[in-house]
Amino acid sequence: LLHDGTYYWYGTHMHENTAAALKGVGVYSSKNLYDWKNEGIALEVFPEGSGHKIESGCLIERPKVIFNEKTGKFVMWFHLELKGQGYKAAEYGVAISDSPVGPFKFLHAGRSCSGIIPMNMEASVVEKLSSSLNLKARTPEWRAAMKEGLFVVRDLGKGQMVRDMTIFVDDDGKAYHVFASEENNTLHLAELTDDYCGYTGKYVRVLPGRANEAPAIFKHKGQYWLIASGCTGWDPNPARMAVADDIWGPWKELDNPCVGDKANITFDSQSTFILPVPGTKNKWIFMADRWNSKNLKDSRYVWLPIEFEKGVPVLRWYDSWNY
Ligand code: DGJ
Question: What is residue 116's three-state secondary structure?
Answer without folding.
Answer: coil
